[in-house]
């Protein structure tokens, strides 16, 4: 089977998006499938390269079109990307076009499908309009928000099949009138062959950051507003009052970093809050090794209610305790009191109370870590999750073969 993945960006960039992509592509290669990716005009460095092989994976690049005003600029990007997808497809000759959000990729893939006849699976990791609200670049209910939502619904209706990463996204699409059997679930997961063996506490990190005897709380990821890290910092004075050895470790960076550093510096427990900065991906497990509890205080909004994050799954794979806000995306991953702890969102006192309670009773820690790890092994392991695509791919290939109007040979020119 030959699959062409249609992507916003890819390796060598490091992000949750590229790590999920890498996991999917690597798992499909392991099944013996032929895989390639084509990235859109927004991938950095497109103008300099037409093709790259990174970590054994082939990626074709798209030259960005000329700039345009809002809407016109996006239409130019869609046209350029559609042309490039069709161009790559003529050489690679895929059986499936597998487009990944955002919706611009799906719209470009729909155009490419029209000229190649190759069936299209569109995979949604988050709705673009809600991601923009969460990132602070959009406003819910605005004209742009409504237009993007309409484009998303249009793409979902036109695609031959749709994949989503969690039940929340599926429920939202069904509420828009999309047939449930048109949508498959492809949940976030981890590659346990790469990220599955927890390290013992790293003595150098413990020594260099004064973690001997500390109750360590941590966050590893991107510093976006919706992650609620301001609430976590605001919870620290109350937590330190109950647990004087508490120390917060923030690993990563992002748009909110400057504001969070300023907030932490003004905190009465500033010395108990440490910013580590970004670390190479192959060093992340060292930081997991020295953190007792990973905290995910996401704010309550559509994005966090609908979308499951990847980081709590990584933490559970590393046998770390997880405490998270009680929003829909977390409830799909964490069973409160069983595989993790849930606390009220947007509520620093609730965060402090939940974290203090964990440190005050460690008797069930090992059993909880084991249950969480088993959940990841059974339900969030890429080596098994990847099998969900096979029947959908095969159904689309069979339907294409039976439908004369979808003949793939020879493909038309873009």
From TrEMBL:
Pfam families xref list: Glyco_trans_1_4, Glyco_trans_4_4
The record places domain Glycosyltransferase subfamily 4-like N-terminal at: 16-189
Top-level taxon: Bacteria
Q: Which InterPro entries match?
A: Glyco_trans_4-like_N (IPR028098), Glycosyltransferase_grp1 (IPR050194), PEP-CTERM/XrtA_GlycosylTrfase (IPR024004)
The record's NCBIfam families line, in alphabetical order, gives: stp3
Name the PANTHER family on file: SULFOQUINOVOSYL TRANSFERASE SQD2
- Protein name stated in the entry: PEP-CTERM/exosortase A-associated glycosyltransferase
Q: Origin organism of this chain?
A: Sphingomonas japonica
């Amino acid at each position: 089977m030959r699959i062409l993945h249609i992507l916003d960006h890819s390796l060598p960039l490091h992000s949750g998006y590229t790590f999920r992509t890498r996991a999917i592509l690597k798992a499909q290669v392991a099944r013996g499938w032929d895989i390639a990716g084509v990235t859109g005009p927004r991938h950095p460095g497109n103008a300099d390269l037409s093709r790259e092989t990174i970590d054994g994976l082939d990626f074709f690049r798209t030259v960005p079109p000329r700039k345009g005003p809002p809407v016109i600029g996006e239409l130019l990007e869609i046209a350029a990307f559609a042309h490039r997808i069709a161009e790559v497809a003529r050489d690679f000759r895929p059986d499936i076009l597998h487009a990944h959000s955002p919706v611009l990729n799906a719209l470009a893939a729909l155009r490419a499908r029209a000229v190649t006849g190759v069936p299209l699976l569109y995979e949604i990791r988050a709705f673009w309009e809600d991601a923009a609200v969460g990132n602070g670049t959009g406003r819910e209910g605005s004209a742009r928000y409504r237009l993007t939502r309409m484009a998303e619904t249009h793409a979902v209706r036109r695609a031959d099949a749709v994949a989503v990463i969690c039940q929340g996204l599926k429920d939202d699409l069904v509420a828009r009138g999309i047939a449930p059997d048109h949508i498959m679930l492809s949940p976030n997961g981890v590659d346990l062959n790469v990220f599955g063996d927890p390290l013992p506490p790293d003595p150098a990190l413990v020594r260099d950051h004064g973690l001997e005897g500390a109750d360590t709380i941590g966050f590893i990821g991107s510093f976006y507003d919706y992650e609620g890290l301001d609430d976590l910092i605001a919870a620290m004075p109350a937590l330190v009052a109950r647990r004087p050895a508490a120390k917060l470790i923030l690993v990563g960076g992002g748009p909110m970093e400057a504001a969070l550093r300023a907030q932490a510096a003004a905190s009465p427990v500033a010395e108990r809050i440490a910013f580590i900065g970004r670390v190479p991906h192959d060093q992340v497990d060292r930081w997991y090794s020295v953190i007792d509890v990973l905290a995910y205080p996401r704010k309550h909004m559509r994005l966090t209610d609908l979308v499951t994050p990847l980081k709590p799954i990584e933490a559970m794979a590393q046998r770390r305790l997880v405490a998270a806000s009680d929003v829909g995306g977390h409830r799909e991953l964490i069973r409160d009191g069983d595989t993790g702890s849930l606390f009220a969102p947007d509520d620093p006192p609730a965060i402090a109370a939940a974290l203090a309670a964990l440190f005050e009773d460690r008797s069930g820690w090992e059993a909880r870590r084991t249950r969480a790890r088993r959940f990841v092994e059974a339900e969030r392991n890429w080596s098994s999750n990847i099998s969900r695509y096979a029947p959908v791919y095969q159904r689309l290939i069979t339907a294409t073969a039976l439908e004369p109007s979808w003949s793939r040979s020879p493909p038309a020119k873009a």
